[in-house]
Design brief:
single chain, 278 residues, alpha/beta, Rossmann fold, seven-stranded mixed β-sheet, 11 helices, 43% helix, binds magnesium ion
């Protein structure tokens, strides 16, 4: 008998890591204030009626050229290595939950769904923890220099990756698997076995999808951030999430308790279903 799989899907910026991944070392390296960089991105996107994600990717390439900074795949990875994390994230969170699931007879898998850059997430200290990383990506030439956008993940297309996890269609090149009809109960990761953790704005469609389909959604904010706490409280009042919590991934934190309780419940439902089948 195969063990049931539980999936925890995370937003990245503001959820696992403070701020945006470009702010940790890329924006300082091009000698710009982060507010100025994002104002230019948002201004260009508004002026052109363009997608913010495609514009930030283009602005990264242009800024690096303008400042004569190297910006190849390995440089993007170098910036990924410098990303800092909220308490507990790089300190055993992912393994602890896999172990917790093991004790209950379920596989716990971790996934990233981010508008940031896949290379940066993968090269970060926690990149090896994920069963898949869904994020924006450059197309590179033979010298590993970005020449085009290969994929741009924005808030509305983020939800497609939940369905890929749900149907086990993790290969983006496979267009048939994600659209194939599979009864909910036969899907590799039913929505009732999904937990989504995000920090807000770009996560609302994912939070709602997971919650409405029977999974658990959680909104996090930095500890001590009153504005962030007000934002997540709003998401809970609007019933988009079950829980709000400080972005504290340490053993014994409130977030740890919510996620463990969700895993306990999901594992118990799976045991009951197995008994029912006989
Ligand atoms: Mg975020």
């Amino acid at each position: 008998m195969t063990r049931p799989t539980l999936a925890i899907a995370y937003d990245f910026d503001g959820t696992l890591s403070p701020g945006s991944m470009q702010e940790h070392s890329f924006i300082p390296e091009i000698g710009e204030e982060k507010a100025a960089f994002w104002a230019r991105v948002n201004g260009e996107a508004a002026r052109l009626g363009a997608d913010n994600i495609l514009i930030y990717m283009h602005e990264m390439v242009k800024a690096a050229q303008r400042e004569e900074k190297r910006f190849r795949r390995e440089d993007i990875e170098r910036h990924g290595q410098r990303i800092g994390f909220f308490p507990g994230v790089a300190d055993g969170w992912f393994k602890r939950l896999r172990d917790h699931g093991d004790g209950l007879g379920v596989n716990v898998q971790h996934f990233i769904i981010s508008s940031g850059l896949k290379e940066m997430v993968r090269a970060s200290r926690i990149g090896h923890e994920f069963d898949a990383i869904f994020a924006s990506e450059f197309k590179y030439n033979a010298d590993d220099v970005p020449v085009w956008a290969a994929s741009a993940v924005n808030y509305t297309n983020k939800t497609q990756f939940l369905f890929r996890i749900n149907k086990g269609a993790l290969d983006l090149a496979d267009h048939s698997a994600v659209n194939r009809y599979i009864p909910e109960d036969e899907r590799p990761v039913p929505f009732r076995n999904m937990i989504y953790i995000g920090d807000g704005d770009t996560d609302v469609p994912c939070m709602r999808t997971v919650k409405e389909q029977g999974g658990v959604s959680i909104a996090v904010h930095p500890a001590g951030d009153a504005d962030g706490a007000a934002k997540t409280a709003g998401l809970k009042a609007e019933r988009r999430v079950h829980f709000t919590a400080d972005a504290d991934y340490s053993d014994g934190s409130a977030l740890d308790a919510y996620v463990r309780a969700a895993i306990d419940k999901m594992a118990a439902v799976e045991r009951l279903k197995a008994l029912e089948k006989g």
